[in-house]
User: Fold this.
Amino acid sequence: MFRASRRLPGRLIAAVALGVAGAALSGGGARGGEPAREDRPNFILLIADDVGWDDIGAYGHPAIRTPNIDRLARGGVRFDRAFLTCSTCSPSRCSILTGRYPHATGAPEAHDPLPRLQVTFLERLRRAGYYTASSGKWHLGDDAVRRFDRVKRAIGGLSGCENWVETLRERPKDRPFFLWLAANDAHRPYERLKNYPPYAPADVVVPPFLPDLPEVRKDLALYYGEITRLDDYAGRVLAELEEQGASGNTFVLFLSDNGRPFPRCKVTVYDSGIKTAWIVRFPGRARVGASCAGLVSAVDLAPTILHLAGLKPPATMQGRSFAALLADPAANIRDEVYAEQNWHDFAARKRAVRTTRYKYIRNFYPDLPNTPPADTVRTLTFQAMRRLRDRGALRPEQKDCFVRPRPAEELYDIEADPHELNNLAGDPSHAGTLATLRATLARWQRETGDREPADRRPDEYDRETGERLPRAARGHEETH
Assistant:
């Protein structure tokens, strides 16, 4: 349940309410706003769940088979510095819909629903005559259902993509459309998939912050399989779009809501958690086969969609349109992006600012370790890391999720240290950069109303075993 008194300052609640009033929120699909135009583009978001940005062939992965997503990249723009505002499912998705940072949406923590008073781009699209539908993973709360004309929930335990093509086929053909197609892949738990060739442990690329063990390779190989299944369903949607003759006027974006569900990835503010694949195909508007090195944030997506639809974004949105980057990938729309980490199974509060070269992290709870989500804690990967830790056999770069206390500040030179393993916060030669980014982050916090919560929400699971604590409050579904 949304607890405004603890998470959202009163001034922000008032601002959100004013934004809703100005946007004339339409829950029933009324079309009383701007008239629809036949030349308005369609929009499809293909949203992966827990897929690392570099675990896609188009981003250079040597083993994972993603031919359909790779083909999408060849027909559009691949963004190489795209970032989420949070590497936690529901806050990330609410941020995408509202164009606001998680602490400003009133849904900053895992399982938080989209609050009723928040404005999304969906209301503007519907008033302009757009048909809006969601298919697959939901995780937005009950109130968000009314934002769409139609919602088809994921079939339990499967890919979550099974109704994607059906949703595209069933759209009204006389209206422009927006489709939110969200996968369960590659969320845990994993199993060997029957209809897709398996990956061998030898195919796996183990990142340096994980130990190269048989358990880790097996875990990553199963994760790879889910990405290939996701790619298959993405290809079916693209083929159906071609069959309908609608691909020429449709903006298609592939992205993920979080990083991979492994230690030091998902829920963190490292690039392994918040950096996302971001591929846009938009015939006639997006340059074909291009790559963009400019920074973009998930808060930029909502104003961009409205911009491309010829609609004015509401004042509540904190992002900016990246439409200019589609035609000119060498352009620049922002100098930095921001991200946050809040409660997700375990207490946490971190904030980060990232430029093209540097990342600064402020850790507000330095007494706590950087524990991954509970379902990752229970994996063979994490438990094998625990055993190595207890024997003193973990390498320094693999100890991050066990370190306590943690440094209050972290600074990384991403160009020299892409995995963010060498903290430069205490290096005198980087004192100027540290001071600048510290001030930049503090200014963003002031401007967006990011304030320390009155109380620290306690852990719900054991940090060593991932088992629910006896005293933990019930009522949270474990679908992170």
Remarks:
- Residues 1-36, 474-480 have pLDDT under 50 and may be disordered.
- The domain at 340-448 is CATH 3.30.1120.10 (Arylsulfatase, C-terminal domain).
- The CA atoms of residues 111 and 478 lie 8 Å apart.
- The radius of gyration is 21 Å.
